[in-house]
Design brief:
mainly alpha, two-stranded antiparallel sheet, 32 helices, globular
C-alpha cells in the first residue's frame, strides 16, 4: 500500500534507499539528517518522509512522526508542510482502514492553498481515489485517479504515473472490464520501467497482470506474471505481496484439487495478515479459508471464517467484500437446506452489488438463487434466475462463469426428467471446460454426463466418461472426484443387475468417504493449531502489557515506600534534634544547679531510652510498611493471573459452546431433510406419523441450538452500529413464523412510527423482536388470538412493543420470567431461553425491557433502546 516516494529527498536519496544495506536502512538515514537540522520547515519535511517510509512497517511510529510533522507545521505556520503532513496522516489512516478519517485528512490537505510539487498533489488525489475504491464508490475513485494523472501530466514523474495508472487498472479489474484493465496496465508498466531497480511499483503491476489474465482464463500468462512478482517479493520482503503470493499458491492448489496444501498456504497468509493488518487483505484471507472449507463440505468452519471476514467488512464499510461474503454465506445455507436464510443473504448481497455497480456479483447472486430454487423444486423460478445470470455473464464475457450457469440449468432439466435437453446443456459445458483445459471442471462434467448416460441406458458411453473422469481424479489427486465416480459406478452396475460389482464400488465409496472425513478431521486439527498459535501470540502480547503495568505499579510502590521512609526519618531526626535541644537546656541548667546532677543523669537516661524506643518503633514501622507492600504486590499478581485465567477459560468455553452448537445442528438438519424425503416417498400412514414426530423433535432441538448460538452471539459480538429499518425487520421475522401464525390463526397488527431513522446493531434488534414475537406465539390465547407490534423512534430512543391477548403471567412468576430456562407453564413447548436472550440483547445495546401482564388476559412487553444517531 506504499504509493509513492518523498518529494523533498531527491533522486539521489531515493536510489540510496534502494541500495542501502540492512545495517543502515533508509529511515535511519533520514533520522540522522533530522538530528542535524534546526530549520522547522526542513524538519517538517523530514518528519513526513520518515512517517511515509515507516507506513506498513511500523505504523505506530509512522503515526507518531506524522503527527509531530503536523503539529510543527501548524506551530511554524508552514502551510506547504501542513499540506504534506495531512497527506501522510491520511496515508496512515488508509493503511489501517480508518477510511473516513483518511478522507477527512486528505481533503483537508487538498483545501490548503500552498505551493507544492504536482507529484505530491497527484499522490494525494490518488490516495483519495484508492480510499473510494476500497469503499466501493467506483465512479468517485475513477474521477480522482484520472485527476491525479492530469495533475502531473504524461511527462511527469514515471514512478507516480505508474502507480496512478495501476490504480485505474485495479478499478477496471474489480468491475470485470478486463480489456480496459490491460490497457491501463500496459501504460503503467511502460512508466514503471523507466525507474530501473525500483521494483515496488512493478510488483504491484505484475500482481494485477496475473489477476487480469486469470479473469481472461489465460492461465499460463497469469502464472508467469505471478511468478515474476513472487520471485521479486522474496528479494524485497514485502508483507502485502507475500500475502498475495501465498493466496495465489492456494488458488493453484485448489485448481488441482489439493485442498490440504491450499489450507496451509492460506493459514500462512493469515499469520502474515496478523502483522500486516490491512483490513481488505485480511478479509480476502478469511474468505479464501472459508471457500476451501466449503469445498471440503466443512460448512461450520467455513461459516466461521466468513463471519470473521464479515465483521471486518461491515466494520470498515468494505461494501464489495461484504456483498461477496453475503453470497458465500448464502451458498453455505443452501448446502445446509436453510433456504429462507439463503434467500435473505442473497437479497442483501444483490442489493448491495446493484448499489455499487458490480454486475458480475449480481449474476453470481442470481446463479446461487437459481440453485436454491432448484433445491426447493421451484424449477420455473430456478430457470428464470439462471437465464438472468446467463445474460449478464455473456456480457461480462467470462466463459467459465457462463459454463457454470449452463451446467446448473442442465440440473434443472434433469430433475424434470428432460434428460435429452439436460445432456445437451452438459455437453455444451464440457466443450468449454475441455477447450480451457479446466481439469477440475472437466472431471465434474465427465462424472455428471456419465450419470445422465446411465439414466438413458447408454451404458458404453457412460463407462467411457467414467474412465475419463477416473484418469483426471488420478492426475489431480482429487479424492472427492474419485468418491463421486465410485458412487456412479455402483449405480452403473446396479442398473444393469450386476449387484456383485455394484457392492464392490459401494464399499470403495464408503472407504474413501471415511478417508476423506478422517482427512478433514486432521485438517481441522491443523486449523486449530494455527488458531492456537495466533491466540498464543496475542496472549503473549497481553502478558507483556500486564508485566509492564505490574512493573509500573511496583515502581510506584517503591516510590511510595521511599516517601514513607523519608517521612519516618524526618520525624526521627526532628525528634532527635528536639531531644538534643532539651538535653542542652538541661545541661546548661545542670551547670548552674550542680546539686541537681543526679536528676540530670536520670533525665539523660530517660532521653536515651526514649530515643531508642523511637528508633525501634521506626524500624518496626518500616518493616510493617514493607510487609504490607509485599502483600499488596502478591495480591495484585494473583488477581491479574486469576483474571487472565478466567478470561482465557471463558474464551475457550465460548469457542467450544459456539462450535459445538454449530456441529450439533448439522445432524439435526440431516434428520429434518430425511423426514422431508420420507413424507414424499413413504406411503405407510404409521411410518409417516413417526417421521412427523422425528421432524418435530429435530425442529425443537434445532430451535434450542439456534437460541444457544444467540446467547453466544450476544455475549461476544462487537457492536457495529448502522441504520435499522424496523418495519422491514419485523415483516421478515413475521414471515419466518408464518406457518405457526396460520396454524394458531393469530391475527397480527403492525404500527410503525419511524419519523427518524434508528441507528443500532441490527442483529441484536432482530434477536429481541424475534424472541418476543415467538414468546407471544407460544402463549397465544384460544379465542381470537392477536399480536400487536408497535414501534416509535425519535432522535434519542426507540420504543418497541409486542402485545398479545394470550395466557398472561401469574403474579408469583413475574419476577423470574427473564431467568435462563425458566418456564412458568409446564405445558409450554418453549425452552425457557427466549426472554432471557431478549433481555441480554437489550442490555448489550444499553437498553431495557419492561412488561405488564394480567393472567388469562394477555401481556405487553416494552423495549426501550438508545438511538445511536449521534
Amino acid at each position: 500500500m506504499r504509493f509513492g516516494v518523498s518529494y523533498v529527498i531527491l533522486l539521489g536519496l531515493l536510489l540510496a534507499k534502494l541500495q542501502i544495506n540492512a545495517q543502515k536502512p533508509y529511515t535511519d538515514s533520514l533520522k540522522q539528517i533530522l538530528t542535524h537540522t534546526d530549520d522547522p520547515r526542513r524538519r517538517v519535511d523530514l518528519l513526513c518522509d520518515i512517517a511515509y517510509d515507516l507506513t506498513d512497517f511500523d505504523d505506530e511510529a509512522a503515526e507518531n512522526y506524522a503527527n509531530q510533522a503536523r503539529k510543527l507545521a501548524e506551530e511554524s505556520n508552514y502551510q506547504a508542510g501542513l499540506k504534506y503532513a495531512l497527506t501522510v496522516v491520511g496515508l496512515g489512516n488508509f493503511s489501517s482502514g480508518n477510511y473516513q478519517e483518511a478522507l477527512q485528512n486528505l481533503h483537508s490537505s487538498r483545501r490548503i492553498k500552498a505551493e507544492q510539487k504536482p507529484e505530491l498533489t497527484g499522490y494525494n488525489l490518488m490516495l483519495i481515489g484508492s480510499t473510494y475504491r476500497d469503499l466501493a464508490y467506483y465512479d468517485s475513485a475513477e474521477h480522482y485517479y484520472k485527476l491525479a494523472i492530469q495533475t502531473i501530466g504524461e511527462k511527469g514523474d514515471p514512478y507516480y504515473l505508474g502507480f496512478f495508472y495501476r490504480g485505474l487498472a485495479n478499478l477496471k479489474l474489480i468491475l470485470w472490464q478486463s480489456q480496459e484493465a490491460l490497457t491501463y496496465l500496459k501504460k503503467a508498466e511502460s512508466y514503471a520501467k523507466k525507474r530501473p531497480r525500483d521494483f515496488y511499483v512493478l510488483m504491484n503491476i505484475w500482481d494485477l497482470y496475473g489477476r487480469v489474465y486469470h479473469q481472461l482464463l489465460k492461465y499460463d500468462e497469469s502464472n508467469a506474471y505471478f511468478k515474476k512478482m513472487c520471485d521479486q517479493e522474496k528479494l524485497t520482503k514485502d508483507y502485502l505481496q507475500e500475502i498475495k503470493c501465498l493466496l495465489h499458491e492456494s488458488d493453484v492448489a485448489i485448481d488441482n484439487g489439493d485442498f490440504g496444501n491450499a489450507l496451509q498456504y492460506s493459514f500462512k497468509a493469515l499469520q502474515i495478515s496478523d502483522i500486516y493488518r490491512y483490513p481488505q487483505e485480511r478479509v480476502d484471507v478469511y474468505s479464501k479459508i472459508g471457500y476451501i472449507y466449503t469445498e471440503l463440505s466443512q460448512y461450520s468452519l467455513a461459516s466461521q471464517y466468513y463471519f470473521e471476514g464479515l465483521k471486518i467488512g461491515e466494520k470498515y464499510g468494505l461494501r464489495f467484500e461484504t456483498a461477496d461474503l453475503y453470497a458465500k454465506l448464502a451458498w453455505i445455507y443452501k448446502e445446509e437446506s436453510s433456504y429462507t436464510v439463503a434467500h435473505d443473504y442473497l437479497n442483501k448481497s444483490e442489493s448491495l452489488r446493484i448499489t455499487i455497480g458490480d454486475r458480475h456479483g449480481v449474476s453470481e447472486c442470481q446463479n446461487i438463487r437459481g440453485l436454491v430454487y432448484y433445491l426447493q423444486k421451484e424449477y420455473d423460478r430456478s430457470l428464470a434466475e439462471f437465464s438472468k445470470a446467463l445474460t449478464i455473464r455473456k456480457t461480462v464475457g467470462n466463459e467459465l462463469n457462463i459454463t457454470a450457469t449452463i451446467y446448473n440449468m442442465s440440473l434443472v432439466y434433469e430433475a424434470q426428467n428432460k434428460n435429452a435437453i439436460a445432456l445437451d446443456y452438459q455437453m455444451q459445458s464440457m466443450a468449454v471446460e475441455e477447450r480451457l483445459n479446466n481439469i477440475v471442471g472437466m472431471g465434474i462434467s465427465y462424472n455428471s454426463i456419465s450419470e445422465l448416460m446411465i439414466k438413458l441406458n447408454r451404458f458404453s458411453e457412460a463407462d467411457a466418461y467414467l474412465k475419463k473422469a477416473m484418469r483426471l481424479s488420478v492426475t489431480t489427486g482429487s479424492k472427492l472426484l474419485r468418491r463421486n465416480i465410485y458412487s456412479n459406478y455402483a449405480r452403473f452396475y446396479e442398473v444393469q443387475g450386476n449387484y456383485k460389482m455394484a457392492n464392490q464400488y459401494h464399499k470403495k465409496f464408503e472407504t474413501l468417504n471415511d478417508s476423506i472425513y478422517s482427512e478433514s478431521g486432521s485438517v481441522k486439527l491443523a486449523e486449530m493449531e494455527a488458531l492456537y498459535q495466533v491466540e498464543k501470540k496475542e496472549l503473549e502480547i497481553r502478558e507483556l502489557d500486564e508485566q509492564k503495568k505490574m512493573q509500573g505499579k511496583e515502581l510506584e510502590s517503591q516510590r511510595q515506600l521511599a516517601r514513607q521512609q523519608r517521612f519516618i526519618i524526618a520525624i526521627s531526626l526532628t525528634s532527635i534534634v528536639m531531644l538534643l535541644v532539651a538535653g542542652a537546656v538541661v545541661f546548661r541548667y545542670s551547670r548552674e544547679k550542680s546539686r541537681d546532677n543526679k536528676s540530670l543523669q536520670k533525665l539523660n537516661r530517660a532521653i536515651s531510652e526514649q530515643k531508642e524506643e523511637i528508633q525501634a518503633q521506626s524500624e518496626e514501622l518500616i518493616e510493617a510498611s514493607e510487609t504490607i507492600t509485599n502483600i499488596n504486590k502478591e495480591l495484585e499478581v494473583k488477581i491479574e493471573a486469576r483474571t487472565t485465567e478466567l478470561k482465557q477459560a471463558y474464551k475457550e468455553l465460548d469457542t467450544f459452546f459456539y462450535r459445538a452448537s454449530h456441529d450439533f445442528r448439522r445432524p439435526i438438519t440431516t434428520f429434518l431433510g430425511l423426514a422431508g424425503v420420507a413424507k414424499i416417498t413413504v406411503k405407510d400412514q404409521v411410518s409417516l406419523e413417526l417421521f412427523e414426530k422425528v421432524s418435530e423433535t429435530a425442529g425443537s432441538l434445532d430451535k434450542m441450538l439456534q437460541k444457544l448460538q444467540s446467547i453466544s452471539d450476544v455475549g461476544s459480538q462487537q457492536m457495529v452500529y448502522k441504520e435499522v429499518f424496523l418495519k422491514e425487520l419485523t415483516e421478515e421475522i413475521l414471515d419466518s413464523f408464518s406457518r405457526q401464525l396460520q396454524q394458531k390463526k393469530i391475527a397480527v397488527h403492525q404500527e410503525m412510527n419511524e419519523s427518524t431513522s434508528l441507528v443500532s446493531y441490527p442483529a441484536m434488534v432482530k434477536i429481541i423482536i424475534e424472541n418476543l414475537i415467538e414468546n407471544a406465539i407460544h402463549f397465544a390465547g384460544v379465542e381470537n388470538p392477536f399480536i400487536n407490534v408497535r414501534a416509535s423512534v425519535n432522535s434519542e430512543t426507540a420504543t418497541i412493543e409486542v402485545e398479545d391477548n394470550g395466557q398472561g403471567i401469574m403474579d408469583e412468576y413475574k419476577s423470574r420470567i427473564f431467568e435462563m430456562y425458566f418456564r412458568a407453564n409446564e405445558n409450554s413447548k418453549g425452552n425457557g431461553l427466549g426472554l432471557y436472550i431478549a433481555k441480554k440483547a437489550a442490555e448489550k445495546l444499553n437498553g431495557h425491557i419492561n412488561f405488564s401482564s394480567n393472567y388469562a388476559k394477555g401481556t405487553l412487553f416494552s423495549v426501550i433502546l438508545p438511538n445511536r444517531q449521534k
